[in-house]
Write a structure and sequence with these properties.
Blueprint (H helix, E strand, L loop, with lengths): L16 H7 L8 H8 L4 H10 L1 H23 L20 E4 L2 E4 L10 E4 L4 E4 L9 E3 L8 E3 L20 E6 L4 E6 L3 E3 L5 E3 L19 E4 L2 E4 L4 E4 L4 E4 L7 E3 L6 E3 L5 E4 L6 E4 L4 E2 L5 E2 L17 E4 L2 E4 L5 E4 L4 E4 L21 E5 L6 E5 L3 E3 L5 E3 L18 E3 L2 E3 L5 E4 L4 E4 L4 E3 L9 E5 L8 E6 L4 E2 L5 E2 L1
Antiparallel strand pairs: 1-2, 3-4, 5-6, 7-8, 9-10, 11-12, 13-14, 15-16, 17-18, 19-20, 21-22, 23-24, 25-26, 27-28, 29-30, 31-32, 33-35, 34-35, 36-37
Helix pairs in contact: 3-4
């Protein structure tokens, strides 16, 4: 039973009608201005009085108004997308950083409040920042019916949350802190470069086509030359293992700081480093490696080797975990060239510059046999072969040190010429030996005297192997202290 015309329906609100509308939910919040305009005809006290006397009528009226307003909000909630036509009644989706310009939804452009230079990304279906665009959280679009410009929001610049409406950077870019301006800027990610229109494209590698050096990867020392990414210097070679341009060992080198991770990098070949002590900087091989014939740094002769660390030269073999010449009876290691070479009378590969070629030792040349069946190293004219397979200078040749002269005689470098090491010795070209003249000391166990002379034991010396060179019976000593009949 209802009293005084009231129902048992209790309205879901207490107080004035405005409060009731707000209690209907967040969806009506944006409708509040238009509700105010409709309710202006009914002062608050009249609604309160009406709802006190006629609750059912008030409730029905409230539901009608709310339904109408929800429909209006939903109709207005459909925003125009990029490229769609727009007007005052057909608004662009400002949360996607769109604005109405010349009757079409386009991206925000530069604004006096900060650099905003955007482009439309069809993947995320929103406008995103080009490289160099201010991406700070404080820049936020605001639905201004007159300008559709963005407004400043807040002052915090330390937290960057990509919530609905906040500016995002374009593909392959990120929001990076710019210390010089104390703000955040869209920058291309590592291994990407900025194009003329502010997009971020992947850096190009060796051999890729290009129009400017900005497109080529600077961290591997590439630049654009003749429309192609190449090594930046003539002495640089591209190393496919390290995927960068490198300078050979012993050549001048550079160091630089990597653009993003700030590592110090150099352009030396693998297993080498840029030594910065002294000028100019030079690529030095790491400890345990040495300069190879191609001026790279590899496990060389005498270095440790194993299954995981093989010898770097094809002429070397890993024997007892040590790199040695693979043909030790016919090859030797030449420190001057840094490789194993064929000794005199040893094998060689004639007129071959490949990695498999076997070069001859110093002062020797590769000669093909008369029948052309094989080639061997032979000493050049003016040089003689030693028992070790070296080619040394003959008696009377110009020299600088003893090792250049014949070690069989043996000869020494005296007054810049290869001579016998003692003035009482005479060089015998027939036997290729330095022999003692008559009266000189000699070795009883060797044939060390000049021709027609022998080493005789001292009569007053007991024991020992030292004697004196005397002419044989039937020969007499000459003025030059040789023996003649």
């Amino acid at each position: 039973m209802y009293e005084h015309g009231q129902t048992d329906l209790t309205p879901p609100f207490q107080g004035d009608f405005h409060h009731f509308i707000l209690e209907l939910g967040p969806s009506l919040t944006s409708a509040q201005p238009r509700l105010h305009s409709k309710l202006a005809l009914f002062p608050n006290h009249q609604f309160g009085e009406m709802c006190t006397k006629k609750r059912l009528t008030c409730l029905l009226l409230s539901m009608v108004l709310a339904t109408l307003e929800i429909n209006a909000v939903q109709a207005n909630g459909h925003k125009q997308k990029f490229g769609d036509g727009c007007s005052k009644n057909k608004k662009c989706d400002f949360t996607k950083w769109l604005r109405c310009e010349d009757g079409k939804c386009v991206c925000f452009q530069n604004n006096k409040e900060g650099r905003v230079n955007l482009y439309y990304d069809p993947v995320s279906e929103r406008c995103v920042g080009r490289s160099g665009t201010n991406c700070s959280q404080k820049f936020y679009p605001f639905d201004d019916e007159d300008t559709h410009h963005f407004h400043m929001r807040g002052t915090t610049t330390n937290h960057w949350r990509y919530g609905n409406g906040s500016l995002r950077c374009g593909a392959n870019a990120f929001c990076d802190y710019d210390g010089s301006s104390s703000t955040h800027i869209c920058n291309c990610r590592k291994n990407y470069y900025e194009t003329e229109n502010g997009r971020c494209h992947k850096l190009k590698g060796h051999g890729d086509s290009c129009t400017s050096s900005n497109e080529c990867d600077p961290d591997v020392f590439l630049h654009c030359e003749s429309g192609e990414c190449k090594c930046a210097k003539d002495e640089h070679l591209f190393d496919s293992n390290s995927n960068k341009c490198v300078v050979s060992a012993g050549r001048p080198c550079d160091t630089r700081v990597n653009r993003l991770d700030k590592r110090v990098v150099d352009d030396c070949t693998s297993e080498a480093f840029c030594e910065t002590v002294g000028l100019p900087n030079v690529c030095r091989c790491n400890m345990g490696t040495q300069i190879h014939s191609d001026r790279t740094c590899q496990n060389g002769f005498g270095q440790h080797c194993d299954h995981d660390h093989p010898c770097g030269d094809s002429k070397l073999s890993c024997r007892s975990k040590v790199c040695q010449c693979k043909s030790p009876l016919h090859m030797k290691y030449d420190e001057a060239t840094g490789q194993c070479v064929g000794i005199a009378s040893g094998p060689c590969v004639f007129n071959d510059t490949s990695e498999l070629a076997i070069q001859c030792t110093r002062n020797a040349e590769c000669i093909t046999s008369k029948r052309g069946l094989f080639s061997e190293c032979r000493c050049k004219d003016g040089f003689l072969q030693t028992i070790d397979g070296d080619c040394v200078k003959v008696h009377g040749s110009d020299c600088e040190i003893d090792s250049e002269c014949d070690t069989v005689a043996p000869l020494a470098c005296i007054n810049a010429h290869c001579e016998c090491p003692d003035i009482l010795l005479r060089y015998d070209p027939k036997t290729r030996r330095c022999r003692g003249i008559v009266g000189s000391r000699c070795n009883l166990q060797e044939d060390s005297c000049v021709e027609h002379a022998t080493c005789n034991k001292f009569q007053d010396v007991v024991g020992g192997s030292i004697g004196r060179c005397l002419c044989n019976r039937g020969y007499q000593e000459t003025l030059n202290r040789t023996c003649s009949n």
